[in-house]
Specification:
This protein has 18 helices and 29 strands.
Length: 757
């Protein structure tokens, strides 16, 4: 791109790094960064920067491009764009330096150190009418591996921007013509019963009142308080934020979280019979409806671009406005209701269907299920008014069942991990729940076979850590959504899903925090079965052992790979060790996708892996990996043994790497790595934990509340311990064993002892 492309009256883009088809990355001249392992690559919606180490002067990137851009707005005596914008996301402590060659000379700009979040620094152009060339420099303060992004470069006219933004400051809370007067007294009954009927609501209200008197607060009252602290009309703008995800939105829109609060206010209003809360929910629905575009941000609706973030935001907008029309329908006039119906049909369902038609791959991962609650509830609402919609509702159900049958493996596994399994359990389950209610069917009778074969997956991934529901492999988190666990526990009442659900429910105070969980809670047993001693999911490629040592559980989980699996990390051959209610060897999972640490946490160096050392670049395997890498092994209540050839995908670095685990009893674990390098001068063994670590003469000790692990330092190894920060205030502590030599066998011996409190 060699010209400015306006996207509103005040702003224009001249470097759309986010769009692979429009990005000008190839036109930039990059200085070599081989010495510090710099990799610059076009990625999903940014140009990704990764480097292995900090150079002495901190300069990790310098890139230059000629532009010769006319900054003057069209028209006689029209002003110029008077500020330069650089949308970037750099690691903590890093900063950006820009050298702009203009018709008024070279302008030099520098940002303060980054806080690790995406920023849009704006720089005055000093009366320049032409941008002739631009140089970008990135300086880092962090030692070791780091990552950042370049999103886009643009210009703006500040006076016109003020005028543009002023148009969104015209809405009042009265919504005259769209909402009934505040004096109208509702009956506090759902309009259509798509979530809960009037009779069910009466029973739910009684149980909620008892919980409120017992606890002083419930998830519903707390959510109502949060929704009441915000003014929905003040958050109306040109786009709708995807929750707190900042990858696609503008920096000026951060905190405009219109989504989520409306349905929570509506349900609390019904439970508490609070007319103000019910009306607040209706205001949230109208605020969403009056946002110009139901999408994340400018980059998803840029003139001439085909880039999209699929239909995540459209699905949420559709689901929430449809649900509020059901729960708070008494508050709307016909105009208010019909305007939202139109937005659902045109901007919600219309966009969702375009994505479903355009992208076959969404049927083969989490996304089709993710989009279906909005698609399903939107259809179910629209067909109440427009009967010709009904066949499309049936098609949405058919698409969901087809997708689940494909994404849930024959052995019940799910390659994207437990957090993305919520798309099967919570999203698929919620869509099925709404459909069953609308059609007068028993939910249990329409749960597809794919969901009913997931008991082994639950057994393999269920965490024995007191603070976790699941082992957070892939792009995962340790806590799962209550709705997802409720759906699976009700469908499979003799599985590990039950104990996972009960653990999550207890963490939330014992009262279900959603209607779906409340409806299913009475069907779920008080406790599920013990974990099986040995689980192997041959299709998914993971293995787990669960045994007892004294009064404590020992769980060992091994990570393999199914060819082509998505949302996975560079961790084939990694393991997780849980003992006595804590995690001794962890998988870091992921963090907020808006933070560059989400890229770092995929790295093999953040997992319990053996990696080559002595290289300028960061050694890593292919990811995603297009071949199977699966362990073989056996186990029972006493013994466990496994072996995995982890070489595939590592071919540029390893000639051979085979890892084995031997555990003749629950107190003993031996991890043996046999390796031969193709590149490098040695190997590094990483053990990751959050527990306190003590380094002695020949051992490293991890101390938990009730358990201890003593690791013998392998022969010929040096040992060090580092603490690595993770976005959101989290961290992981790394025990690092390093050994010189291009071939050999490295053996890590671990002894566990249980110390009852």
């Amino acid at each position: 791109m060699t010209e400015l492309i306006p996207f509103n009256i005040a702003e224009a883009i001249f470097e759309p790094f986010w769009d692979p088809r429009l990005s000008g990355l190839a036109q930039w001249t990059l200085e070599s960064g081989e010495a510090h392992g710099l990799v610059v690559a076009q990625n999903w919606c940014w140009v990704a920067l990764n480097w292995a180490r900090r150079p002495a002067d901190g300069l990790v990137l310098r890139m230059t491009r000629q532009f010769n851009l006319d900054l003057r707005l069209p028209g006689e005596n029209a002003p110029s764009y008077d500020h330069l914008i650089a949308s970037v996301n750099l690691p903590e402590g890093a900063h950006l330096r820009l050298l702009a060659d203009t018709d008024v000379g070279r302008l030099v700009f520098e940002t303060p150190p980054s806080n690790g979040k995406k920023g849009e620094p704006v720089f005055p152009l000093g009366g320049a009418s032409y941008l002739e060339a631009l140089t970008l420099e990135v300086y880092t303060a962090r030692q070791g591996l780091a990552a950042g992004w370049l999103n886009w470069l643009g210009v703006q006219n500040r006076a016109l921007l003020d005028r543009y933004l002023a148009q969104y400051r015209r809405f009042s809370a009265q919504w005259e013509g769209y909402l009934k007067p505040e004096s109208c007294q509702p009956r506090f009954e759902p309009a259509f019963g798509l979530l809960i009927s009037a009779e069910e609501l009466s029973a739910f209200r009684q149980e909620h009142q008892a919980a409120l008197e017992r606890q002083g607060a419930t998830p519903y009252t707390l959510a109502a308080e949060a929704a009441s602290r915000l003014i929905p009309e003040a958050m109306i703008h040109d786009f709708v934020n995807f929750w707190n995800d900042t990858r696609y939105s503008r920096q000026r829109d951060e905190g405009r979280w219109l989504l989520r609060y409306g349905p929570e206010a509506a349900l609390a209003g019904l439970l508490l019979q609070d007319a103000g809360l019910l009306r607040l929910a209706a205001r949230y629905a109208l605020a969403i409806a009056f946002c110009d575009v139901w999408d994340d941000g400018m980059i998803c609706a840029f003139p001439g671009s085909t880039f999209d973030h699929r239909c995540f935001v459209q699905s949420l907008c559709t689901y929430e406005t449809a649900l509020i029309l059901d729960l708070a329908g008494e508050c709307f006039t016909d105009l208010g209701r019909d305007y939202i119906l139109r937005r659902i049909g045109e901007h919600g369902i219309g966009n969702i269907n375009q994505i479903v038609w355009a992208y076959e791959y969404i049927f083969h991962n989490n996304q089709l299920a993710w989009f279906t609650p909005g698609r399903m509830l939107g259809y179910l609402l629209l067909e109440r008014f427009w009967p010709r919609v009904r066949p499309y509702t049936e098609l949405a159900l058919q698409d969901l069942v087809e997708s689940l049958e494909d994404t849930v493996l024959p052995d019940g596994g799910y390659v994207e991990g437990p957090s993305y399994f919520r798309c099967v359990a919570r999203d698929g389950g919620l869509a099925l729940y709404h459909y069953a209610r609308a059609r007068g069917k028993d939910l249990a009778h329409i749960v597809p076979p794919a969901m009913l074969r997931t008991a082994p997956f639950a057994a393999a991934l269920a965490s024995t850590d007191d603070q976790a529901d699941a082992i957070p492999i892939c792009d995962g988190h340790a806590e799962m959504e209550l709705e997802a666990l409720a759906m699976m526990a009700a469908a499979l009442p003799e599985s590990a899903w039950v104990n996972m659900y009960r653990k999550a429910l207890a963490r939330q105070g014992g009262f279900p925090s959603t209607v779906l969980a409340w409806q299913l809670n009475r069907q779920i047993p008080a406790a599920g079965p013990d974990l099986p001693a040995f689980v192997y999911l041959a299709e998914m490629g993971v293995m787990a052992s669960a045994r007892r040592l004294g009064g404590a559980q020992v769980k060992l989980f091994l990570m393999g790979n199914r060819a082509g699996a998505g949302h996975t990390h560079e961790d084939k051959g990694s393991f997780v060790l849980e003992f006595a209610g804590e995690t001794f060897a962890l998988d870091p999972g992921t963090c907020d996708y808006s933070h560059p640490d989400a890229d770092l946490l995929k790295n093999c160096q953040r997992h319990n892996m053996l990696t080559p050392s002595g290289l300028a670049e960061r050694p890593h395997p292919q990811c995603p990996l297009e071949v199977d890498v699966k362990p073989s092994g056996a186990g029972d209540a006493q013994r466990f043994t496994a072996r995995l050839d982890a070489t595939p995908g590592w071919e540029p670095y390893y000639r051979r790497w085979v890892r084995s685990w031997e555990s003749p009893d629950p107190a003993t674990l031996i991890i043996r790595d046999e390796y031969e390098l193709a590149q490098g001068s040695g190997v590094t063994f990483y053990w990751n934990t959050r527990l306190p670590v003590e380094v002695g003469g020949e051992t490293v000790t991890l101390n938990g509340r009730r358990g201890r692990a003593v690791i013998r330092i392998p022969d010929g190894c040096t040992v060090s311990v580092e603490e690595l920060s993770i976005a959101g205030g989290d961290f992981q502590r790394q025990i690092i064993f390093q050994r010189a030599g291009v071939a050999g066998q490295l053996e890590v011996q671990v002894a566990l002892t249980f110390q009852p409190e």
